[in-house]
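Intended use. Records like the one below are meant for learning the mapping from a protein sequence to its folded structure. Do not use them to infer anything beyond what is encoded.
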Amino acid sequence: MRAVTRFLKALLGVIVACVVIFVLVEGVSSTVLFVWDGLFKTGAGLASRKHVMFDEQLGWVNQPGLKVPDLYGPGLGATINAQSLRAQHDLSGAVPVGRSRVLCSGDSFTFGVGNGDDETWCQQLEVQHPQVEAANAGEAAYGIGQMYLKSKRLSEQLKWNVHVTGFIADDIRRLTTLDFIGRNKPRPNLKDDGTLVWEGTPVAQASPLYLWFRANRRVFAPLRFLELGGRLGKKFSKPAPGGAGWSQARTADTVIAVFEATRELSQAQDAVAVFAFLPSGPHFDPEDERWRRELLPRCAEKGLICLDVVAPIRALDDATEDAMYTAAWGHYSADGNKRVAEALWAELVAIPEVAVRLGEGAPATPEGEAVAPPPAE
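Structure written out for the chain above:
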């Protein structure tokens, strides 16, 4: 009996020793990897941090009057004018005589992440069609709600003939959230009486430390005690504000309401609003398909001009479509921006009321006169 007891004690000692050794080795290894990643793999965050600043109405906005040389590589810089547009010069309040101004709202695909100032699809409209003056209001990481709010602000400064809101499927999800990548943002909410209200305003500024932590989550992800804390937090805490609870129907209703508000901005200055569903990656995307099926018929019911730019891009052969995106940035390449601009233009000029305002077969403004700037409020 004593022999059995001694054996069990010895076995237990071996098991405990193995557990202790495992914990020590695992802990030391995790610590070494964490320190290594912390020293060599941390970053300051997205490239857009170099050209955006906090804004209590929009969440963040391109910093006016800023030039960031070589942002995406040699010769691929970004220039922000005084109106927070990606442009190498300031725009006059009135549309220049004999030209048509196209305001482009959107996210990073419109801003042109990975490309120089003249390579964005918005600027390519001007490059390919000299009668057009492009006004690139794209902002990295924007949702559809923020696109509207920025265009509303710009409507107090600029006139335009055509307003193109270029959006991807993920911009629809962003519309439902009160933050994105650690930055707080406003969120539209559609009341029962059909009016839009804006939640989360004025926007609270996130601390630099929190933004840095969010930007380097992959460094902290292997820490098991953080994972344990996260699981416990999800189990015992209330759901965080965001897209949770937003049905597809509710989201679509809110998107359409924002589109209608955007249309009103253009109608107030005898311009046309267009909403272009853009591709965000090569080949089939179930989110693209889901939202194209949901939104495009709703647009038609409301008399909104919603264009499907995904379809002509998907019709390209695989090699051509793959070449439209950069491996480094995951956004349109210079060739991709050209193709998006070409596909979009073909859709735009097929609509008579848009074609007239683009100077296709008719003057951009009556009797060749510039449109007067909107009155200051």
